[in-house]
Design brief:
Blueprint: E1 2-9, H1 15-34, E2 43-50, E3 53-61, H2 67-73, E4 79-86, E5 90-94, H3 105-108, H4 118-131, E6 144-147, H5 154-161, E7 165-170, H6 173-189, E8 194-203, E9 206-216, H7 220-224, E10 229-235, E11 250-256, E12 265-267, E13 270-272, H8 275-289, E14 290-301, H9 307-316, E15 320-321, E16 332-335, E17 338-346
Parallel strand pairs: 6-7, 6-11, 7-10, 11-14
Antiparallel strand pairs: 1-3, 1-4, 2-3, 4-5, 8-9, 9-10, 12-13, 14-17, 15-17, 16-17
Helix pairs in contact: 4-5, 8-9
């Protein structure tokens, strides 16, 4: 016996991304199915048009999805509404309650050139958490998400929405200031209890970074009880992140690498159009920041760096690239000059040797 479902896909402001949304949702569902977090594993996933509208359809064994399974699948990046299929032509609504500790405008208000699509940011965070040793705590653990190329903080804001803590590293001071200004304004406008400050980071009396840090909670009662979240953004070079962050500080690392089109990747040798130069220098540093069993999720432009080369960088840092159903189906076109793909790799469950 199978219970059949139809997931209505959320609209996307980006038409090109919307064209790939069904295929990406199917891949993401397959990754959820293989993660071990679901009791009723979905099968027969397909993209179908029902009444002229695109849905992701699938089935679940027996009586169907239970409460915890629904709680997980509510967080599919393109999920808009879920229906149980009754017969051939009826859809019965199934309530979805995604993780969302704050209003959605925390994600949607910021608009700037180069901003990563919000749905894709959520997908990248989802699949990285599902690959990690923290997958079972996706719904109820306060994970720590690190974005070592955080820009203006789309990934950090999605982490906050999920109830996680966020850490970002960004070399462009204007982006760090813009993120701090936005979050302060947003928190005040929402009248949320919080603290926020920007302070210098010094070592041996030398300035090595600036740190913006905010501590917040979705309600005064939670803030009073100490049930707070923390987001930290460091104005520093990602290849020097170990100077400002302690080892094994992150459950997952999630980042969208520079595309090498409108701008490049900055390394000690200057500006490079290939993200491989940056990744080659940065991934060994990021590897030290991952906790045992943690996962690193990376997206990049395959027009300037082939997948095999990116896999080699991750493997060379001692990470195991994840493969299987769904994992090789996440590539999609962003625009004429950008074809984006996703790699997720997992750290061993024993910590790496510390550098001397």
């Amino acid at each position: 016996m199978l219970t059949r479902y139809a997931l209505l896909l959320a609209p996307s402001a980006n038409r090109v991304y919307a064209d790939a949304a069904g295929r990406l949702a199917r891949a993401e569902l397959e990754i959820f199915a293989g993660s071990g977090v679901l009791d009723a594993v979905p099968v027969d996933a397909a993209v179908e048009r029902i009444g002229g509208v695109e849905y992701l359809t699938f089935a679940a064994p027996g009586p169907g999805l239970g409460g915890r399974d629904l709680a997980h699948l509510a967080n599919l990046s393109a999920a808009y509404a879920l229906f149980e299929r009754v017969g051939d032509d009826l859809l019965r609504p199934v309530p979805l309650e995604p993780l969302a500790r704050y209003d959605s405008d925390l994600i949607t208000i910021p608009k700037y050139a180069g901003k990563t699509n919000e749905q894709f940011t959520r997908l990248l965070l989802n699949v990285t958490v599902l690959a990690s040793a923290s997958a079972g705590g996706m719904l109820d653990r306060q994970l720590v998400v690190l974005d070592p190329l955080c820009g203006r903080g789309t990934t950090l804001n999605q982490a906050l929405m999920y109830g996680y803590d966020g850490i970002g590293v960004e070399h462009d001071g204007k982006d760090v200031d813009a993120y701090g200004a936005f979050l302060r304004t947003w928190l005040r406008r929402k009248r949320l209890k919080h603290t926020a400050e920007t302070v210098p980071v010094r070592r041996d009396r030398k300035l090595i970074a600036r740190r913006f840090e905010a501590v917040l909670a979705p309600s005064r009662d939670e803030h009073r009880a100490g049930a707070t979240q923390r987001v930290t953004v460091l104005h520093s070079d990602t290849t020097r992140a170990r100077e400002v962050l302690r080892p094994r500080c992150a459950d997952v690392i999630v980042t969208d690498a520079p595309y090498g089109v409108a701008h490049g990747s900055r390394t000690e040798q200057g500006l490079s159009r290939s993200p491989l130069d940056l990744l080659g220098a940065a991934v060994p540093v990021w590897r030290e920041l991952l906790r045992p069993g943690g996962a690193l999720g990376l997206s990049w432009n395959t027009q300037v760096a082939p997948r095999a080369a990116a896999e080699a960088v991750l493997a060379g840092a001692g990470l195991r690239v994840v493969d299987g159903p769904g994992w090789r189906d996440l590539a999609h076109r962003v625009d004429q000059a950008i074809d984006r793909d996703v790699l997720v790799a997992v750290a061993p469950t024993t910590p790496p040797a510390r550098r001397v």
